[in-house]
Specification:
Chain lengths: 108, 165
């Protein structure tokens, strides 16, 4: 299971791959072509990043007819979260996060 | 105007057997330990199923068993009990359980959801928690401490919100 976690951290340690996950969070279930649109990366580079994300189980895929759709799969991130954040800390951490969001919005 | 729909696909790899994963979903004795809820049904195609809060006994979700092929595939309709009459509120959950080498791959596909709905938001917070808790439960025999005994599941929060409204 340690090996799996290494894959998750390695996959996340790249801005382009995090950006792909952000895009899937905004719109889930995209094709490779959709994910290439408006990206300054080559199709090959996007494919390579998606494969890495899939291997780390951060992206799940489903076939729709002839198309392969990509979905954000946050299950491994949840496992990491649960490992260091206990039941009683969740509420306080959420409150801190909300406070930070609210203060940052005010600054803008 | 057609309503925009959305779907989610969640995957987890569990060091277990397909039958144990099937039982973790369909046997309320197991589900309540890592989910805080039991899923109750005969699990025959056409039967009703209910997602029941272990503490309160309240039915949080319900629907029909659309397909049942133990231990590899289970398809359910999924709807809040107070919206059963409205067909447009029925979404669909597909569990695909597949043995890959020595691990079980569990895919949960939740589709036919209204985009931006409370249900879509609720389930997208809920499934990652449920699946990681199920994985820990099956691999270690212990649920994640963040889930067990947590009555504030997404479903119950949704319910509370509705009741307050």
């Amino acid at each position: 299971m340690v090996a799996d976690e290494d894959k998750v951290f390695k996959a996340l340690a790249d801005a382009s791959r995090r950006q792909l996950l952000d895009r899937l969070r905004r719109k889930n279930g995209q094709t490779l072509s959709e994910l290439c649109e408006g990206h300054d990366m080559s199709r090959q580079a996007v494919t390579k990043h998606l494969n890495l994300l899939e291997e780390a189980n951060l992206v799940a895929t489903a076939k729709k007819g002839r198309e392969k759709l990509h979905f954000l799969n946050p299950v491994p991130i949840n496992e990491i979260y649960m490992r260091w954040i206990g039941k009683f800390e969740q509420g306080r951490i959420q409150a801190l996060h909300n406070l930070k969001q609210a203060l940052q919005e005010k600054d803008q | 105007m057609t309503q925009a729909m959305t779907e989610f696909v969640y995957t987890t790899y569990i060091n277990s057997t397909p039958q144990k994963v099937w039982d973790a979903i369909t046997n309320p004795e197991f589900a309540r330990q890592y989910w805080g809820h039991g899923n109750i049904s005969s699990w025959k195609a056409g039967a009703k199923w209910e997602h029941v809060n272990d503490k309160t006994g309240n039915v949080m979700m319900t629907g029909e068993v659309l397909e049942s092929h133990p231990p590899s595939r289970l398809v359910l309709s999924w709807v809040s009990p107070d919206k059963v009459a409205d067909r447009s509120e029925h979404s669909r959950v597909t569990f695909e359980i597949e043995l890959m080498d020595s691990l079980v791959r569990l895919n949960v596909i939740h589709d036919q959801l209204k985009a931006g709905s409370d249900m879509a938001k609720g389930i997208s917070r809920g499934w990652p928690r449920v699946l990681s808790s199920m994985k820990t439960f099956l691999e270690t025999g212990r649920p994640l401490d963040t889930w067990a005994g947590d009555s504030q599941s997404c479903a119950s929060k949704e319910k509370a919100k509705e009741q307050a409204a």
